[in-house]
Design a protein that fits this description.
The protein has 762 residues and is an alpha/beta fold. The protein is 34% helix and 22% strand. The protein has 6 domains: 116 residues, GIY-YIG endonuclease (3-Layer(aba) Sandwich), CATH 3.40.1440; 76 residues, no CATH class; 182 residues, P-loop containing nucleotide triphosphate hydrolases (Rossmann fold, 3-Layer(aba) Sandwich), CATH 3.40.50.300; 179 residues, P-loop containing nucleotide triphosphate hydrolases (Rossmann fold), CATH 3.40.50.300; 58 residues, no CATH class; 91 residues, Alpha-Beta Plaits, CATH 3.30.70. The longest helix has 20 residues. Bound molecules: adenosine-5'-diphosphate and zinc ion (ZN).
């Protein structure tokens, strides 16, 4: 790429060299890391800037590509003309071009694929300007006036409902007509009638007008920092004065006030005219944190994946044109077109959700450090359980570590009690999901009017359906995965391809036996708890019960207000929640993760127990955690119970070091998948052998594990094989992948997917 080409190009043009032929470097959204050259016709010469999209001939088609550079050096091939330019301003700036180029090289994907992923679909689709209708009441009415109007509408129930919704708002703000009609369950005609009667006003607005920064309400004051927070804040401010700010790992236990520190750091940067990108693991699960950011600052943009088209577009433009100070969002917000970025925060930096699981398979944590380097910004990684990667960077002296070791307000971390479920089985004869200890503490907490959180990392009723007679286990027809029984929906479901079917009456294999449901998921716990504690309302939160948009917020609000006494859920409830009245957390099974064939399973188990345990003891009533496990002596569980992160990290690193697993070594995984089992295996073998040849020459610097069938051997009717490349540094892996890159192209219906720094091993 010809860097600095925006200025050099105008220079070339103005210095009487406009006759000189310029070429555009163009990349496409294909899994091929190659740049194509096109002539820039003279009439387009001044209009084209790298970062714009162009229409070009490709083979015998006309397709869209991204211009990533402009050069005057001919490629040596015969080049065709660009047909047209699609944008009036670049969708990606210089930094984003550098980042996407890096992604394509590091993660072995096309540069165009990276560009495609970085620019939101809505921006690529150039939405037309849309008008929205807004509704407000026609004037400020007193309570009695409102009453009178509502009385007069007693018979017109839909009209009454609309008015009621409008009257019940805090101030006389406008509501989007669509939203209002949805809530009132009425049609536009109802609004028109009310308009004719002068009871409401309808107004049309374009999205741009709609999106003007809201009238500034006065932001809430900062809290006075605790001693520990203040010390960390001083260190951050000191770093800000240094020429290169680098990465800070903020290791603070749950409830130690990390969020307050983020907020004050954002404010500090704003004083200097610098802006912040704030990444959270998942938007819908972090409403409490987002709420706190929004009440502290004006001009906050929250990027949801379900934002409405035109609104999303205008928000993107607001960010690009400098009307936004803080961008909050999940992983892909690391690409937000924010200018003048001074700070990038990753809350819960250890979370897997920062890694994208389809191409480009980037990790937002790594992109954050890269972007910060390019833009001279600071990265703040916050967590109670640092990823071992970040921990190791601190050990090596690459990151600065700051510690918050105490909870705010002298609150204590809750005591954690491990219940040995084998012992429990022996004692109670037969298997019980809720141990006596857990039941005892539940009774205590509930009788004291307190709240309880129960955690189980498995949804549905039962994860196995088997025949009582022949033992056959029902599996998905398309995947090599046992079916889960979902009782409320009365279906069987495959958690991989999401196919659903009616539960069988009898065994589909021997046709004679009846089926039995084994194991347990959240639905079964719900049943069991409801039987044991019929007088208390239970809120179940998992991806079955929380299907509709906004249901999380509603559910959590209800729990906060005490409408439910027991909250039961999957990892959906593990993070960020802060409810002082929760005095007991029960982890129904700490083993669900531990047994997965993945070198990170121990780390995940530790993180999960620590996170879930952190949901309690947040008020003055204290708290307690019960962890149920069949491996009560496992170090991941015992260290988590002792709140001993350092102990855990040291032990875990001891295991990984001789095996050269991350963070010591680097990994890449290749997944082969195809409809034909034979072809899939063959391709895996061919590439495996080629890589092993390369490994032989590497003087043990590169190791190839596999190829072998993947732990899940079939998904969606495609067979799966995989292999791992392991090396001391990334370059070795990169070079080896380069050597076989031609072989990785799809053949005989088998695809090879490269995953650099993989997080999924199934
Ligand atoms: P973390 O993000 O580390 O889990 P939080 O930032 O959520 O911790 O802080 C825990 C609680 O303590 C929150 O209710 C927060 O409002 C409160 N808090 C944080 N810092 C202060 C402070 N300096 N003074 C008073 N309360 C604080
Ligand atoms: Zn399936």
């Amino acid at each position: 790429m010809n860097s600095g080409n925006q200025t050099s190009k105008s220079h070339i043009l103005s210095s009487n060299m406009s006759t000189r032929q310029l070429f555009a470097e163009v990349v496409f959204n294909i899994p091929l890391n190659k740049i194509f050259h096109y002539n820039i016709p003279h009439n387009l010469g001044e209009l084209l800037i790298p970062g714009m999209r162009v229409k070009v001939p490709f083979g015998n088609k006309i397709i869209t590509g991204f211009c990533v550079g402009i050069t005057d050096k001919p490629s040596g091939y015969k080049t065709k003309d660009i047909i047209g330019i699609l944008d009036i301003f670049p969708l990606a700036d210089e930094t984003m071009l550098r980042i996407t180029k890096w992604i394509s090289s590091y993660y072995c994907c096309g540069w165009g694929e990276a560009m495609h992923a970085v620019i939101p679909p809505i921006v690529r689709n150039n939405p037309k300007e849309k008008k929205y209708t807004f509704v407000k009441t026609s004037g400020c009415l007193s309570v009695s006036e409102k009453e009178t109007i509502l009385q007069s509408k007693k018979r017109a129930t839909k009209q009454a409902k609309v008015l009621e919704l409008l009257f019940n708002q805090e101030s006389n703000t406008e509501i989007n007509a669509k939203e209002l009609m949805r809530r009132a369950g009425c049609a536009m005609s109802v609004l028109r009638r009310l308009e004719q009667e002068n009871l409401i006003l309808l107004k049309e607005k374009s999205v741009d007008a709609l999106n003007m920064p809201e009238e500034c309400s006065k932001p809430r004051q900062h809290l006075t920092l605790s001693g520990e927070q203040q010390a960390a804040f001083e260190a951050i401010k000191q770093k800000l004065t240094e020429p290169v700010q680098g990465v800070i790992l903020l290791h603070g236990i749950t409830g130690s006030g990390k969020t307050e520190l983020y907020l004050q750091t954002i404010a500090k940067l704003l004083e200097q005219g610098k802006k912040t990108i704030f990444l959270v693991p998942e938007i819908s699960l972090t409403s409490q944190t987002i709420g706190r950011i929004k009440e502290r600052f004006n001009n906050v943009a929250v990027l949801h994946s379900h934002l409405q088209g035109a609104f999303h577009y205008s928000q993107w433009k607001d960010i690009k044109e400098g009307r936004v100070d803080v961008v909050v969002g999940a992983r892909s917000s690391i690409f937000a077109p924010l200018k003048n970025v001074g700070l990038i925060i990753l809350d819960e930096e250890h979370e897997n959700t920062y890694k994208q699981e389809n191409s480009p398979r980037y990790n937002a944590r790594d992109i954050a450090t890269l972007r910060a380097k390019y833009e001279n910004a600071m990265v703040l990684l916050g967590t109670a359980t640092p990823s071992l990667e970040s921990y190791y960077e601190v050990e090596k002296g690459n990151y600065t570590k700051l510690v918050l070791s105490k909870r705010i307000g002298a609150l204590q971390l809750p005591p954690v009690e491990i219940v040995d479920m084998l012992e429990e089985v022996r004692k109670k004869r037969g298997y019980h999901i809720v141990s006596q200890r857990l039941e005892y503490y539940m009774k205590q907490a509930l009788s004291r009017n307190e709240q309880v959180i129960l955690f189980l990392n498995r949804r549905g009723f039962a994860p196995y359906i088997h025949c009582k007679r022949c033992g056959f286990v029902l599996k998905c027809r398309r995947c090599d995965i046992p079916l889960t029984f979902h009782k409320n929906l009365n279906i069987t479901m495959c958690h991989y391809c999401h196919s659903e079917a009616l539960p069988p009456e009898s065994c589909p294999d021997c046709l004679a036996g009846s089926v039995n449901y084994r194991g347990f998921g959240t639905e079964k716990i719900e049943d069991e708890i409801a039987k044991k504690f019929p007088e208390y309302k239970i809120l179940r939160m998992d991806s079955d019960s929380m299907r509709s948009h906004g249901s999380h917020e509603k559910a959590l609000k209800a729990f906060e207000q005490g409408e439910f006494r027991i909250l039961l859920g999957t990892q959906m409830i593990a993070k960020g929640l802060d409810f002082p009245n929760v005095t007991l957390v029960g982890i129904i099974s700490a083993d669900t993760m531990l047994n997965l064939p993945d070198f990170r399973s121990g780390e995940r188990t530790f993180q999960l127990i620590s996170q879930v345990a952190g949901r309690t003891g947040r008020g003055h009533r204290g708290g307690r955690v019960i962890v149920q496990s069949f491996n009560p002596k496992h170090y991941c569980i015992t260290y988590a119970a002792a709140h001993d992160y350092e102990g855990f990290a040291k032990k875990e690193l001891e295991y990984r070091k001789p095996l050269n697993y991350p963070p010591f070594g680097k990994l890449a995984r290749i997944i082969f998948r195809g409809v034909s089992e034979k072809n899939t295996e063959e391709k895996a073998m061919v590439i495996g052998n080629a890589l092993k040849e390369i490994a032989k020459e590497s003087d043990k610097q590169l190791e190839i594990l596999g190829p072998s069938p993947a732990p899940v051997t079939r998904i969606n009717n495609q067979f799966r094989w995989h292999l791992l490349l392991k090396a001391k540094d990334h370059q070795r892996i990169h070079d080896a992948l380069q050597c076989v890159s031609d072989m990785l192209k799809p053949t005989k219906g088998v695809q090879s997917l490269v995953d650099v720094d993989p997080y999924m091993m199934l």
